[in-house]
Write a structure and sequence with these properties.
Radius of gyration of chain B: 14 Å
Number of helices of chain B: 0
Distance between the termini of chain A: 37 Å
Largest interface: A-B, 26 and 25 residues
Largest sheet of chain A: 7 strands, mixed
Strand content of chain B: over 45%
Radius of gyration of chain A: 13 Å
Number of helices of chain A: 0
Largest sheet of chain B: 6 strands, mixed
Order of helices and strands of chain B: EEEEEEEEEEE
Distance between the termini of chain B: 41 Å
Oligomer: heterodimer
Helix content of chain B: under 10%
Structural class of chain A: mainly beta
Strand content of chain A: over 45%
Shape of chain B: globular
Amino acid sequence: DVKVTQSSRYLVKRTGEKVFLECVQDMDHENMFWYRQDPGLGLRLIYFSYDVKMKEKGDIPEGYSVSREKKERFSLILESASTNQTSMYLCASSRLNQPQHFGDGTRLSIL
Amino acid sequence: GQQVMQIPQYQHVQEGEDFTTYCNSSTTLSNIQWYKQRPGGHPVFLIQLVKSGEVKKQKRLTFQFGEAKKNSSLHITATQTTDVGTYFCAGSDMTTDSWGKFQFGAGTQVVVTP
């Protein structure tokens, strides 16, 4: 069974901090995704990656960056956290055009 | 850019009743996926539709892809309390985005009254 593991279930940080969210998948998937989920807005794509060191902006990339140095790991970075980045963050992985497998999510609070 | 809209946003259903949730895209889709997210959980894949007019069934769930490949529906018969959750559709347009990026709708949150 595909396993997508996010490093933290809950995280509390302060405004201005640099925040790292980590995601690891164990199925050798090419594609990896970072979404944020807010009530009434569904899942909005922040960034995705289709190969090691390759990335593309999603719909809401502002204030975020990503890193994919190894195929199994995709990191989301909040360069300088702000309160409007308080949200649920979901990582997913998939083969090309195949179903996405999601992690359990990280509920991030920025104080 | 591609927009995927879902209606209704909320659906209150009496146990045993049927309901339908709809997904509409501003562009023609290559394929569409449906996911279910239980309260407190993460989205879980249900099904993928690829062909124009395709209909697929999973027990009490019936999924349909429109002839023009711009809309889709999920119909649930004889709703049970286990159907509680948020249902998302996600569409992909491979002609403009060959990397398999999917645009998610905002979801339909389903509440079932016993």
